[in-house]
Structures are given as C-alpha cells and as structure tokens.
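Sequence in, structure out.
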Amino acid sequence: MSFSSPKVSRASNRAPVLTNPIRYPESASAPLRSKRAWILLLLTLVLPGSAQIVAGNKRLGRLALRCTFVVWLMVVAAVALAVFNREALLNLFTNPWTSFLLIVAAIVVAVGWAVLFINTLIILRLALLAPGMRAVVGGSLVVLMVLTTGSLGYGAFLVNSGRNAITSIFASGPDMAPVDGRYNFLVMGGDAGANRSGRRPDSIVVVSVDAKTGQSATISIPRNLQNAQFSKDSPLWSVYPDGYNCGDNCIINFLYTDVTDNHAALYPKASDPGAAAMMDAAGGILGLKIQGYVLVDMAGFSSLIDALGGVTINAGGWVPISGDDPTGTGNHLPPTGWISPGVHKLNGYQALWYARSRQWVLEYSRSQRQQCIQSALLAQMDPATVLTKFNAIADAGTKVIESDLPAGQLGSFVSLAIKAKSHELSRLTIGPPDFPIEFSTYPDFGVIHKRVQDLLNPPAPAQAAPDTGTAGSAAPDSGAPGSSAPDAGAGAAPAAPAAPAAPPVTEEYLQQLAINGDDVMLTSLLANNGTCSAN
C-alpha cells in the first residue's frame, strides 16, 4: 500500500502579500508613506503606545498604553479635585511625601515617553520617505519629544524647588485648628543690622483670616508700643506679670532679643523662642490666640520682590531713600533718592525702602506703607506670576522667610489666600490714624480688644430708613440757585493780599531741604507719605 504525498499548491510557496501599509509600508505609495509617518507621530503624542500597537512591538505598546491610561486617569482625578476640592489638590502638591512621589512619577513618564518617541522613529522607516519629507518628519519628532519630555522634566524641577522651599521654611508639626473660626498669624519683618544687637522685628502685623470665606484683616502693632500684656498661660507671665512695662527699654520690638538672650528656656519646644514670645505678646495686646508666625528677613526682602517681578502701588506722598547713618544715632546723611507720589512698579530695593523708611515721619506712616505693600503683594500674587517665576520665588523664600506653620497644611492656607483675593482687606493700626499718637505709650488694652473684635466681626449693614421728611424740611443750600445769600460786596472788608505761592514740591526741592537740614519743613511736607493703595 503506497502513500502519495499531497500536492502542494504553487501559491503556498509564495511570500505573503503585505497589504497593510501601516505595518508594512514597503508596498505603499510615497504619499501614503508620508501620511503613515504623520499618523504614527500623532499617536505617540496623544496616546503613547498606540503607535507600537498598530505598527511595531505590540508587547511594548500594550505596556505603554496601560501606563498612558493610568496617567490620564490621574489627570482627570486632578481636574476633578481642582473643581470640587481644590484644597485637597493643593495639599497633595505641598505635602513633602506626595510631592516627592509626583516628582518620581514625572521623571518616569518623561523617560518612558522619550523611549516611545525613539521607538517610533525606528517604526517610521525614514529611509522610505521622500528626501524632503524625511527632514520634516524627523525634525518634528525631535521637537515633540523635547516639548513633552522637557515639559515634564521642568515640571518635576519646579515641584522639587517648591518641595525644598517648603521643607526649609515650614515646620513638620501637626495641623492647626482655627480659633473662633479664624486663623491668626503673626507676620514680622526682622532686621539684624550691623549696628544692632540681635534681630529686632520692626514690622509687626497680625493677619487674621476667616477659615471658611478667606475674609482677611491685618492689624499693625507699632514697634514702639509699651506695656505689652501676656495671658496667664504664657511662659512670660512668670517674668512679666504686669506686662513688658519698663518704659522705653521695653518697647515691643526689644522683646524678641530679650527672650532670645535671657529667657529662651521658657520656650523649650520652640525652634525660635523670640518668635514664640512675640506671638504671646501680640495675642495679649489684641486679645487673640496667635497660632503661628512668619518671619521675613528685611535684608533679603528685596530679593523676594525682585523674584515676583516687582510690586505696583499708588503712593500718596514722597518717601525718602535715606542716606547712611555713620554715627548710628539716627542722624542720616541726605537721602540717596526719593519715591514720588503716584503709581509705581517698585523693584526690590525701592519696595524695601518704601516699607522701612521712617525719616521725618512718625512710626505709623511706615506701618501704613507696610500694610499697603502687603495688600499689593496679595493682589498681584496671581497664578500666572507664581507659575512663571516659581523657582526664583522659592529660592528667594528659603533665604528670607522662616515660619512654624505646618507644611502639611499649606494647601489649606493657599486655598484661603486664593479666596482672600475676592474680598477687600480690612486694616487696623494700633496707632495713628486709628488711635492717638500717645496711645502706644499708654495703651488701653480693653479698648484695643473691642476694636479688634469690631474689625473681625463687623455688624450687618443697617437698612436705610425711609425718607418721611418734606421737601421744605431740609436746610436751604446757600449755594443753590435762588438762595438768599448775603451780598459779598456789601460792607465786606477789602480782601487780604494773596500769600506768595509755595514752591512746587519736587525731588530737587526736597533734596535741598535735606541738605540744608530743614527738618521742620520736611516733616510738614512728608506728613502724608503713609497714604498708599495697592494698584
């Protein structure tokens, strides 16, 4: 019995006909090959891994697609959080651990995307394209790879800068709880000049923020306020039960150095005993519980303003940029420059002098200008500015800011700061224009506490009463047409000769007064230099 071999079809020995132009471009026309190249490039850009599925290594493509879907889900979740719970999203970005994971994820995605672009370059088969199209497609791929992976890498760099700044500036303690529905922070501008013993906070401002609405108020405490009070639960009660009341040697800005040098043991858990003491003093003065502090080194304040690109204010009066004080007694040389009234975009150097200058004016004018700078910074701290200049801001911040605010709660505070931008900032100064000049020397703390509560809890606006009067009940307007004003010419004494016009106030005129030592005239002309508004 014999077996014959089956006939083999001649067609079975032929090579398979490769008709899929996406996977096998050899048989495709030149225009189709170009179209294929652009499609694969677009797929790698929009849906990384899909180009490998349709034209390359399917195993690599499936792995990449899974990662792509995970990334898209994370993006969608982030968008949802931004819409429905912005605070949670901000907490994720500001938390040191989650921000570290975000940095690692961004780097991994950037490297993986770059690998896929390189693999797509192999799949494209540039040699099969027309000579002119090879350069266009190859160049486009390189540009897209740089834009995508470069953006992710830069994003990771920014997040790392922010993470380093957060861990350098802020504490790692537990979250703070609002007191009576508010967060109260002490913001100090510290100055440790070469001719000063220790650091003294010349700028002392309490910022009170409604924990729900973000409605904010600033309360300035003048540096020369005396007899600061302490509550019974303050460690300083044992040292100053009657207040910090030894006269001019116990103005409030001396307290920081006093406690740092002599009573640091009273605050064993505080990283900065002087700042903790200032919080206790501010709380006793205002009748508030102060929960945290931010201390800005005024010597580096200018670098922070420069990092933000300047600050715009509307100055109401002339402000001198004081000359040197060679004797250390407050007798400055003539100013090296002046900031004129009107709208200015101040750089860091100018903003520093605008906030600290107090020559020829009372301390309270400087407090008003500091409040103005704070309001302007808040108004101009928009997301675009922060994003485009984030690294410079973070770098400057680590050099000029220290704080005990918990790093894990920064997202909540940033969210409140964003809400605060939609409200008008309320202000109070424990001195002129809100209190008499002598009030700082002999403060009435009961009056202060009431004014603070009125500021933070204003009464609801009363409705206007209906107008029940008659038209004839109003007092006649002597300037209205038909009114019986006396004849100015009848029996009037001859007009006194007009006083000679005062010279216009210019920078040259003010500078000459300073050179001449005319302090009286300068004090008069600069009396309004505390007036200012955020532009």
